[in-house]
Design a protein that fits this description.
The chain is mainly beta. The chain has one helix spanning 9-26, and strands at 40-43, 48-55, 58-65, 69-75, 84-89, 95-99, 104-109, 117-122, 128-130, 140-145, 158-163, 175-181. A hairpin with a 4-residue loop joins β6 (95-99) and β7 (104-109).
């Protein structure tokens, strides 16, 4: 008959090793994930698509919207430093709002010829400042036809291009929120 004796030493050593492993891994500093190097885009509506790319020394934001009404947010990883051109692939632009967290640039494009552009700047305090073409916050708006048609509203093939004013986004304001409404939704 064999007789076995209980030896607690191996169990104590295993518990000690597990505790030490937990202590060592639990005391390591947590490093945050690396900051994104590309802009991060979030859309609100299912049928909205917003893409960001750099071309010809400009940052381009392409907006496609099935319903014609939508919103998106683009987070840039830091200072943009290049002109921002937003192309709305819509038939018309009843309203577009660009918000940098401190102020909002509101743009409306009339649907009848001539396609008059109205713009205003809304401050954090809610003050609405009408803009004219010689204001530094005036955005250039251009109707771009992709075929031989004249660039008129309603736009059948093409886009409405808005070039944001220089400095609208900067290191303190790297997030662009935008909303749009198409006349012909």
């Amino acid at each position: 008959m064999t007789h076995s004796t209980f030896c607690p030493a191996p169990i104590h050593l295993a518990l000690y090793a597990c505790c030490m492993a937990l202590l060592v891994t639990g005391c390591r500093p947590i490093t945050p994930p690396p900051a994104p190097s590309a802009p991060v885009v979030e859309t609100v509506e299912q049928g909205d698509q917003v893409s960001v790319f750099v071309e010809d020394e400009s940052v381009h934001i392409d907006v496609h919207s099935e319903r014609g009404i939508g919103a998106a947010q683009v987070r840039f990883p830091g200072q943009v430093g290049k002109p921002i051109v937003v192309a709305f692939h819509l038939q018309g632009l009843e309203q577009a709002v660009f918000d940098n967290g401190e102020q909002q640039l509101e743009i409306s494009l009339f649907s009848q010829d001539p396609s008059t552009v109205l713009q205003s700047l809304v401050t954090q305090q809610g003050v609405v400042l009408p803009l004219s073409e010689d204001d530094p916050f005036w955005a250039r708006v251009k109707i771009v036809a992709e075929n031989s048609d004249l660039p008129t509203i309603p736009l059948r093939q093409g886009h409405i291009e808005v070039t944001l004013p220089p400095g609208f986004l900067d290191a303190q304001h790297p997030v662009l929120s935008l909303r749009w409404i198409d006349f012909y939704r």
